[in-house]
Amino acid sequence: MTTAALLACDWGTTNLRAWSLDGAGRVVARRDFALGVSKLARGEAAARFAAEVRPALDADALPAVLCGMIGSNLGWTVAPYLEAPVGLDDLAGGLVAPEGSAGWVRIAPGVRADGLTAAGDVMRGEETQLFGWLELDPDRARGRHVVCHPGTHAKWMVVEDGRLTRFVTAMTGELFAVLRRHSVLGGEAPAEDAAAFGEGLAAAADGDALAARLFSARARVVGRGAPVESTPSYLSGLLIGAEAASVPKLLGVTPGTPIALLGDAALCALYRRALERRGMPCEVFDGEAAAVAGLFALYRKGIAR
Amino acid sequence: MTTAALLACDWGTTNLRAWSLDGAGRVVARRDFALGVSKLARGEAAARFAAEVRPALDADALPAVLCGMIGSNLGWTVAPYLEAPVGLDDLAGGLVAPEGSAGWVRIAPGVRADGLTAAGDVMRGEETQLFGWLELDPDRARGRHVVCHPGTHAKWMVVEDGRLTRFVTAMTGELFAVLRRHSVLGGEAPAEDAAAFGEGLAAAADGDALAARLFSARARVVGRGAPVESTPSYLSGLLIGAEAASVPKLLGVTPGTPIALLGDAALCALYRRALERRGMPCEVFDGEAAAVAGLFALYRKGIAR
Fold first, then answer.
1. CB contact (8 A) between residue A213 and residue B116
2. B224 at the A interface (CB within 8 A)?
3. What is the value of ipTM here, to two decimals?
4. pTM
5. How far is C-alpha B6 from the geometric centre of its chain's CA atoms?
6. In a 3-state reduction of DSSP, which class is residue B123?
7. Among A270, A272, A267, which Cα is nearest to A287's?
8. pLDDT at B121
């Protein structure tokens, strides 16, 4: 039987995903907890980590590395943002030992960058996945890579010679969720109508005037008689299409540039369709494997300090 | 005492606003009802109009003209869309007598146009306000006018020689409402922070990549320490700024073109700030006076047929 050497956690706003890893970074066990930081009472992170997470993975005595919103002011202990550009060594240097933890426990810092506006941009958690993805193939240590992590808050990241130099967050997933649940574009039908998704991609055009293009999802039904059940797919195509048309361009990503999509397979497939339509060839990678590799790399670098 | 000659109603999704008018179109009485078509059970419009609206305005025997969503398939009787371009005479020609009405009652048709996408665009109600605004000043009968009606679904309308030739709807108001209530950008603070509104206007840039620029409202707080109470104003500036930067351009409206803002005074003031910053001088007009004038004009033209 393999002996676990590390407890690795991606502790986000909604969920906590935990793995025990052996000394080579291979997964021994995996557990999900509905214990995101939005569900934590102030000050209880240490106690719940010790009482619920550690025992569930037989990891009472293991060193632990955590990334994600657990390092925010809503989490356990703040791990301050590092300013981009950052590399894996910077990230390991920014690990923070949280208050009241037993044994060797570290929380990864987030990253802050200039972004598109004066407000700048931030991430917590995706940086660890990104550096894990880089670790998984030594060929990625050099050159320029564009990595997109789709999701509630999609991250577009530019890596140059192993350092995260720029990134932009697009809240495409959250827009889809709130419009679908709470707006005149609502609908509970699954977003699986490939033709309507394609119509939405076309309607996105250059990604400008999104508030106006969104209304086309309504006009299409009341003015043109399209079935209302196809609205979620159309809306998904419109939002993902608008992101694909505008965000890469603002990051200086030109047609022909390959994009690495990192995350949920079904969502990555939708992004792939939107991006390849615009001449950006995509390859899809497993986000979970990247997260595990990133947490393990932070452990190796952090424990050696 | 003035004698009322007409019952005029703007009957929308959420509310019904009714006026009794004298023979010259002046308002005799006015009442609001929380009786939008979204609150009507199927088939009950005729009965509730007769039992609640008519008596409240002492208008049991008056002719009546109605505009807005009451002409949709959720309303009373469908008044089919007319295709733009349309003039006031076309609109009067499209008036529909609803089922089960007593006396002379007419519902105004909506208008459909090409819009920005293959889905086209639609309106119901704003066309009546627009033609009322034209009627209020004979100088508006000729030439080109650009009229913006801000709101939940803002309408941008181009009038040429008295005919509505093009329009685009931007769901800016609805985006603001759902993001504020249901997203990570939420907040109950009033949107009255003029400096944060200005920051949002600047962050809107060219109106592209809206899903990414929206996340700046979050990054501004967690990454730059801006007070979370200023988020609603920043969000409002960002959304209105993005509309001002993109929609006029797509309608061929160039800097220097005067814009007529028709609607709620406080909201029109925010649009004015966004548009004048981009070199489009604005004049604000009362939307209610325009609605009354439009309904009265439809009555005069309709009764003469």
1. yes
2. yes
3. 0.94
4. 0.95
5. 22
6. strand
7. A267
8. 97
